[in-house]
Sequence to fold (205 residues):
Amino acid sequence: MTWDRVGSSYDRVAGKYETRFLHELRGKPRDRELLATFAASVGDPVVEVGCGPGQIGDFVRRRGRRVVGIDLSLEMARLAGGRLDGALAGDMRALPLATEGCGGVLAFYSLIHVRRSEVVAVLREFHRVLRPGGRVLFSAHEGEGEVELETLLDEPVPMAATFFALDELTAWSRAAGLEVALAERRAPYPSESETGRLYVDAQRP
Fold:
């Protein structure tokens, strides 16, 4: 199944992905604003779930936070280890982290690789690893349904993706026991694919 091969697919394109997206935040002012606010509002450590090569977590790390990355791809985790305070391969559906051990959870565009039926369970995992008062900031692509693709970054590797509506992400966050502080949508920037971007900032009570 394509969904079971997401990690190995990213292993195969990790270097190309790093080259393509390493400096992506330069052209995303709203993302930078949200990340800077997040960095200033949480304690250590921050875990970046679906960290890729670590470019997003590095932005937060440079603003004073201790950031550890987790990615389904072993090769992505290896790349992230050079930018973050540590990184390991792991599945966001069962995070290899202690309960209430994190000050913040960051998940930028990684929920795209979670089936819709699994999102609440993933958000409950975020709730589990957060300390009381800890925050989670996650983003997703706007749209409907799940798709399976045959290419990624023009390479012949299988990929699966899920698209969301903002109201369902906020409802699922509340179902997972999180208090939503911010939920917003923005139009895509010129450098991005033509889907709206969704953001949710929530807190564990």
In short: The chain has one domain: 2-203.
